[in-house]
Amino acid sequence: MYLTREEERILKGEEGPARQLAMKLLVRIGEALGAERLIRISHAHVSGVSYSNIGDPGLEFIEGLASGGRVAVYSTFNPAGAPLGMDPPYPVPREHVEKQARIVKALLRMGFEPSGTCIPYALRRPRPGEHLAWGESSAVAVANTLYGARTNREGGPVALAAALVGRTYLWGLHLEENRRPTITVRVETLPRGEVEAGLLGYMIGKLFSGELPYLDAGRLTKRQVIAMCAAAAASGSTAMCVVRHVSPEDQGPPGGVERAALGPNDLREAREEVESASLDEAELFFTGCPHHPEHVVNRVLELMEAHGVSRLRRPVWIAVPGRASRPLATLAGELARRNIRILPGTCLVVSTLGRSGLKAIATDSVKSAFYLPRRHGVRVALASLEDFVKAYGA
């Protein structure tokens, strides 16, 4: 692999052991993949920061890098294993709380933004054509699909290494030739709302994994594209689609590629595969996977008012970025009286939810419906927040 003089200095350890280790990791992986050189990035986003996921080895690795390492570019990190700045509404062992705090403190010492979110594009909007190194699967798909930025789906340690040296290897979706659609998918029944968009994404990931789909699905909203990308990344590791009328790289339907169609039967099949409970069985409603911006709280309250609901008989949990903990702290008491809990900087997927004893929840996130049964043994019903409010409003 070709390295610049600056990169050679980092590799030799002239800029400290943390950056040397990061450069070694990137060079070795890049060489194994056949990358010719490294490229500069504008934004690194690190996944794998939940203590529930990485345990003591991950904690020690991050603290080791933090002893002398500093990020070289704008850097953010994924949701933690417990809420940041607020008490969780489910059991979290004291050891997890303490060690999760150490992980976050180590990241902040390195210069990471106090983020704790899976929607880094809401903190800094990616630009078309710019290179990123992101480790959150749903965010990778959104960056490539919705914004036209360029990033592979990096592992947590690789994204962390990229943050420390401001570079990644030139490979995969960083290359123009790998961003061209390989199949056209026509959607015969346009999705209504975010749940159906998520079901569409689930089938795209399941049926076309390894392809780069050109999606003709009408004019999807931004939230629908995000829900679709999250589900496609979960079910099939899909890192990019080109969506007609939406993606910056849309140049019309490609010629000379295979064609496929998805219809109402496919969406029904997707629901049957991911839904394992009914709304009547749901003990709570979880939304925010991917995270919602903090102003979603106002939309929830407006929805309750529209239906004449002052309090919910079963709770709603809303996951938001970690930096939202302070602005929402003043509302915490009022929200609690309405049976609404805010989960800043975390997500149930990477939490200790399995210790809660919950048997079934409702959600509008197909990504959650895919992961929660597998990770925590919780059955899931798919529903909109409005459906839940109407069913459990008091």
How do the helices and strands line up, and which of them pair or pack?
Blueprint: H1 5-11, H2 17-33, E1 38-40, E2 43-46, H3 51-66, E3 74-77, H4 94-109, E4 132-134, H5 137-147, H6 156-165, E5 167-169, E6 183-187, H7 193-207, E7 213-216, H8 222-236, E8 242-243, E9 258-262, H9 264-274, E10 285-287, H10 296-306, E11 316-320, H11 325-329, H12 332-337, E12 340-344, E13 360-363, H13 366-376, E14 379-382, H14 385-392
Parallel strand pairs: 2-3, 2-4, 6-7, 6-9, 7-8, 10-11, 10-13, 11-12, 13-14
Antiparallel strand pairs: 1-5
Unreliable residue runs: none
User: Which sequence of strands runs across the widest sheet?
Assistant: 12-11-10-13-14
Pairing-aware structural class of the strands and helices? Answer: alpha/beta
Per DSSP, the total helix count is 14
Helical fraction: 40-55%
Gap between N and C termini, in Å? 64 Å
- Characterize the largest beta sheet: strand count, sense, and whether it forms a barrel: 5 strands, parallel
Whole-number mean pLDDT? 95
Q: SSE string, helix = H, strand = E? A: HHEEHEHEHHEEHEHEEHEHEHHEEHEH
Structural shape: globular
Rg measurement, Å: 21 Å
Percent range for β-strand residues: 5-15%
- The total strand number stands at 14
